[in-house]
Amino acid sequence: MWAKGRFGHMAAFAAKAQELGFTHVEANASVSPRMLAQLLQTTVPIASIHSPCPVALSSRGTPASSLSLSSLDESERMEAISFAQRTIDLASSLSARAIVLHMGDVPIDLSLQDRLYKLYTDHHAHTKEYTQTTEELVYQRISRVPPYLDAARKSLRELSEYGRQQGIMLGLETRFNLHEIPNMDEMAELLNEASENLVGYWHDVGHAEVQQRLGFSLHEEWLSRFKDRMIGVHLHDILGISDHRAPGTGDMDWVMVAEYLPPGIERVCEVGEWNGEEDMLGVVDFLRERGIASQLE
Predict the structure, then answer these.
(1) Does some domain include residue 284?
(2) What is the β-pairing status of strands 266-269 and 242-245?
(3) Is residue 254 part of a domain?
């Protein structure tokens, strides 16, 4: 994320990443084919890839990243699978360990979600309106999710088999928004149905923290329930419910996070492009001092 719009050539990004102390990088859905080609010419390894990568347009003329693996429109679901398979192919060609997957969403009234975020940001989280908005969001999601979760299961079965053939693991990521799949219990269901050699848990510290701050689920419970299936983590800081900040510039409980991270997982700093270079100085040392950094992307 941090490289987006910041560097004219990815060689400059790779050099800056190494200068800042990072040993690997993650390629994601904001990386264009040209940027990917440039990145592959550098000496910095790509350890993980966030699907879909590189940037592409769907047959609908929308970004491939907007396609849903939980769609009830079979043509959309299959096209989403196709782009995920291309990402798996890319990961395999680069000897990356895993790809990160978003498993889709449930159509709910997103204006309610926007209202909830505004109420929280305006310090009205303990009001009747906040409680009512939360209850309506939860009700809509529970009542509508079954067929979309079934579609996500189907997509995961198909992609895990494809990943097995290519030798690439799938990392199911903690999501930011309530309407996205999976929530905590759905994550448990999906992981229980998949082989641990094919599908793992990808923890996003900011997303899990936002879920807690909004009152939906506990950050530590995500870590404790799924630490044994964890294959990777996205690291970034948070203020309020604004995440993807450089580690050390927010109020994340890094001591708690460090307690649950297994050895040998991929550790990726997923920092938004709005963070300045000065915010990135010392990030690796900051995380290392808190027992989090070994190999950092």
Answers:
(1) no
(2) unpaired
(3) yes
Do residues 36 and 53 touch, judged by C-beta distance below 8 A?
Answer: yes
Rounded CA-CA distance 228/193 in Å is 15
Residue with tokens 């510039």: 249
What pLDDT was estimated at residue 141?
Answer: 97
The per-residue pLDDT for range 207-216, each reduced to its tens digit, is 999 999 999 9
Query: Which residue has 């579609």 as its token pair?
Result: 151
Q: What is the extent of the structural domain holding 66? A: 10-275
How far, CA to CA in Å, does 26 sit from each of 78, 123, 167, 171?
A: 25, 35, 18, 13
**39: pLDDT strictly greater than 90:** yes
pLDDT in tens, 165-175: 999 999 999 99
Structure tokens at 10: 């990815």
Q: Does residue 211 lie in a domain region?
A: yes
Output the domain CATH number for residue 226: 3.20.20.150
Contact yes or no for 142/63 (Cβ under 8 A): no
DSSP for the chain reads -TTTTT-SSHHHHHHHHHHTT---EEE-TT--HHHHHHHHTSS--EEEEESS-S--B-TTSSBGGG--TT-SSHHHHHHHHHHHHHHHHHHHHTT-SEEEE---B----HHHHHHHHHHHHTT-TTSHHHHHHHHHHHHHHHHHHHHHHHHHHHHHHHHHHHHHHHT-EEEEEPPSSTTBS--HHHHHHHHHHS-TTTEEEEEEHHHHHHHHHHTS--HHHHHHHHGGGEEEEEE-EEETTEEEEPTTSS---HHHHHHHPPTT-EEEE---TTS-HHHHTTHHHHHHHTT--SS--
Whether residue 262 is contained in a domain is answered as: yes
pTM of the model: 0.95
Q: Considering its fold, how many domains does the chain have in total?
A: 1
